[in-house]
Design goal:
The complex is a heterodimer.
Chain A (H helix, E strand, L loop, with lengths): L1 E13 L6 E8 L4 E5 L3 E3 L2 E2 L7 E13 L7 E9 L5 E10 L5 E12 L3 H10 L22 E16 L9
Antiparallel strand pairs in A: 1-6, 1-10, 2-4, 2-7, 3-6, 7-8, 9-10
Chain B lengths: L8 E13 L7 E7 L5 E5 L2 E3 L13 E13 L7 E9 L5 E10 L5 E12 L4 H10 L21 E17 L6 E2 L20
Antiparallel strand pairs in B: 1-5, 1-9, 2-4, 2-6, 3-5, 6-7, 8-9
The chains are: A mainly beta, B mainly beta.
Subunit structure (chain A): Part of the tectonic-like complex (also named B9 complex). Interacts with TUBG1.
GO molecular function, one term (chain A): gamma-tubulin binding
Subcellular location (chain A): Cytoplasm, Cytoskeleton, Cilium basal body; Cytoplasm, Cytoskeleton, Cilium axoneme; Nucleus
């Protein structure tokens, strides 16, 4: 079987209006993919930046996949949340990005969005916080049910991902 | 004796902890160590180091230059657990006690070549107001008992941090027998090496 190593970091996020941010992340793959070692989901620390407006998480990712096919190439999905001084959490953005398919080092910028909801919900979010969230997290990385949503832009999550491929040339796959 | 089918690959890292930007602090020193997986073992060089105390430059850069060498070689059979360098920066507080001014970690670049990395440095924060007050009153900041936790992904959801500086690292990476073991590391990149050699405020 061909092997893929995904080694890198969720560096941080820019462009969010909230200041104390953290990120829940996960990786979704097709049925032909098997995770040999590493954790496929996690949550970063909460960062309150003192200089500049970028929140830094430096969250390490180290995953080792074996695959029998190319279908279902890994997708990273992200949820950015903000935490206020009382420890309450509010959704700031959803986003996903495909793990790059060429070996080497990649800088990824993942744009995010959040559901808007009705005008009542928007008004409530502006005054008391909270706001609508997705019931099914798979909407983040699948395109199937998106057409029903009305969304607003969030900030951008920055990732530095290195990719190592093994035995792809043995099967004639050019990445 | 060059074996026809090697089972081990080597990763040689040279480089330096070049400089740092900490707008609020001065007279800092830096410790580094490496964190790596079970299949990895160092074969040569030093995997820990502690730098001199550097003061800020008296110019617009306000740079803390350490110019501290890194030279280590690892061997492994599996890229999982690829080495990360963990940095911790310390400096004196108003009473002259050494307190931590930042932790940071980054993976050693995967592909051979020359790489520059600017890594954000953060300190843990007290979670409760009472702890905040006592740490302010006693003049003791929260610290990690083992700095190596910053290289781990698990258990982070309980920590709150404050990022307050950057350290610039330079790596020269050489690998041996990765190709023979069937790994494709991609093209040799020199990402971020071009351009000025000292950090220019906040990297994006």
């Amino acid at each position: 079987m061909a092997e893929v190593h995904v080694i890198g970091q969720i560096i941080g996020a820019t462009g969010f209006s909230e200041s104390s941010l953290f990120c829940k992340w996960g990786i979704h793959t097709g049925a032909a993919w098997k995770l040999l070692s590493g954790v496929r989901e996690g949550q970063t620390q909460v960062d309150t930046p003192q200089i500049g407006d970028m929140a830094y998480w430096s969250h390490p990712i180290d995953l080792h996949f074996a695959t029998k096919g190319l279908q279902g190439w890994p997708r990273l999905h992200l949820q950015v949340w903000s935490q206020d001084s009382f420890g309450r959490c509010q959704l700031a953005g959803y986003g996903f990005c495909h793990v790059p398919s060429s070996p080497g080092t990649h800088q990824l910028d993942c744009p995010t969005w959040r559901p808007l909801g009705s005008w009542r919900e928007q008004l409530a979010r502006a005054f008391v916080g909270g706001g609508p969230q997705l019931l099914h997290a798979d909407t983040i990385y699948s395109g199937a049910d998106r057409y029903r949503l009305h969304t607003a832009a969030g900030g951008t999550v920055h990732l530095g991902i290195g990719l190592l491929l093994r035995h792809f040339d043995r099967y004639g796959v050019e990445c | 004796m060059a074996a026809a089918s090697p089972s081990v690959f080597l990763l040689m890292i040279t480089g330096q902890v070049e400089s740092a930007q900490f707008p609020e602090y001065d007279d800092l020193y830096c410790k580094y160590c490496f964190v790596y997986g079970q299949d990895w073992a160092p074969t040569a060089g030093l995997e820990e180091g502690i730098s001199q105390i550097a003061s800020k430059s008296q110019d617009v850069r306000q740079a803390l230059v350490w110019n501290f060498p890194i030279d280590v070689t690892f061997k492994s059979t599996n890229p999982y657990g690829w080495p990360q360098i963990v940095l911790s920066v310390y400096g004196p507080d108003v009473f002259g006690n050494d307190v931590v001014r930042g932790y940071g970690a980054v993976h050693v670049p995967l592909s051979p070549g020359r790489h520059k990395r600017t890594i954000p440095m953060f300190v843990p924060e007290s979670t409760s107001t009472l702890q905040k007050f006592t740490s302010w009153f006693m003049g003791r900041r929260p610290e990690y008992t083992d700095p190596k936790v910053v290289a781990q992904g698990e258990g982070r959801e309980v920590t709150r941090v404050r990022s307050q500086g950057f350290v610039t690292l330079l790596f020269n990476v050489v690998t041996k027998d990765m190709k023979k073991l069937g790994y494709d590391t991609g093209p040799v990149d020199t990402q971020g090496v071009l351009g000025p050699s000292l950090p220019q405020g906040n990297p994006q």
